[in-house]
Amino acid sequence: MTQTFQTPVLRTQIVVAGHLCLDIIPTFASDFNAAGQGLETLLAPGKLVTVGPVVLSTGGAVSNTGLALHRLGVPTRLMGKVGDDLFGRAILDFINRRSPALTTDMIVDATATSSYTMVINPPGVDRIFFHCPGANDTFSANDVDPAALRAAAIFHFGYPPIMQRMFIDDGIELVTLMGRAKATGAITSLDMSYPDATAPAGQVDWRQILAATLPHVDIFLPSLEELLFALDRPRHDALSARGSILSQTDGALLDELAQEVLAMGVAVAGIKLGKEGFYLRTSDDPARLAVLASLPDPPPVARWLDRQLLAPSFAVNVMGTTGAGDCAIAGFLAGLSCGSGPAQTLVTATAAGAFNVESADATSGIPAWSTVLDRARSDHPRRAVDMPLPGWRWDATTMLWHGPADNSHRADRSDS
Question: Domain count of the chain?
Answer without folding.
Answer: 1
